[in-house]
Amino acid sequence: MSITYRKLVEFISELYDISNRTIPKDVKESLKSALSRERNPLAKKILEMMLKSAEVAEKERLIICQDTGIPQFFVKVGTKFPYDIDLESAIKEGIEKITKEAYYRGIAAHPLTHVRSSTNTGERMPIITYEFLHDAKYLEITAVPKGSGSERWSALKMFDPYDVIKDIKKFVLDSFINAGSRPCPPVIIGVGIGGTFDYVAKLAKEAAIRPLNKRNPDPNVAKLEMELLDAINETGIGPMGLGGDTSALGVNIETAYTSAVWNPVAVNFQCWPGRRATGRIYSDGYVEYL
Ligand code: SF4
Questions:
Q1: Exposed e or buried b for every residue in 12-49, given b needs 16+ CB within 10 A?
Q2: Which of 63, 117, 188, 214 is most buried as measured by Cβ atoms within 10 A of its Cβ?
């Protein structure tokens, strides 16, 4: 058997559905460990409710949040995967299918008129980014539903290259405080540092969807991740902004070389369910969810 257009549509539709109904394992583990450390009784209760919601959503095949978001896909294309399939159309059709079948909220809209398409598709929607995987016979796709809280409070700033660490810490902390309860904390914070104006936002996004149990391989960056996490949790904003020790589950940073005369920094959030799902589809049609 080999991969077909229909098979790809089914895969996309199922993957997006999983991302809306299942909390990633690392996020669940992180919520559990936050619960065991949390000292505020109300915060404890909220964390327990979040874990219970995740359990019920998974068992009953319910969506975790009513805001099923706008669809974003990170696609890794194996260089041995057949290119003659119209991948972009298959992704669009997969989203239209699941939006209709599962009664997802149609939130994608025209940027000027704000008229909704009702299908969660439209011009350049879903948002898709591509990279290549040398020698692989599969497509690896991460589906990320971006609800309003997880995108609306994102921030980007071009800095001068002085006092970089101090500036970055202040910017990330200020961005988090400005967002407050609106991205439904405890959040996962993705930070991009370096590159260019456009690339730094992509880095922040990639950081926000990196599993919570993986630190940046550069020890200096990993140290900054931990320092920022401590600083954010010290704000006391807590689960759903109602106070407590757990304001964030993690801070992930991705970096790229940049110019010696300026330095961009971007911040993106994932709200408490940390919604994302990754799957692979092989050139023979075999599918696996990671
Ligand atoms: S921020 Fe996230 S969890 Fe909160 S309402 Fe929006 S999509 Fe749902």
A1: bbbbbbbbbbbbbebbbebbeebbeebebeebbebbee
A2: 188
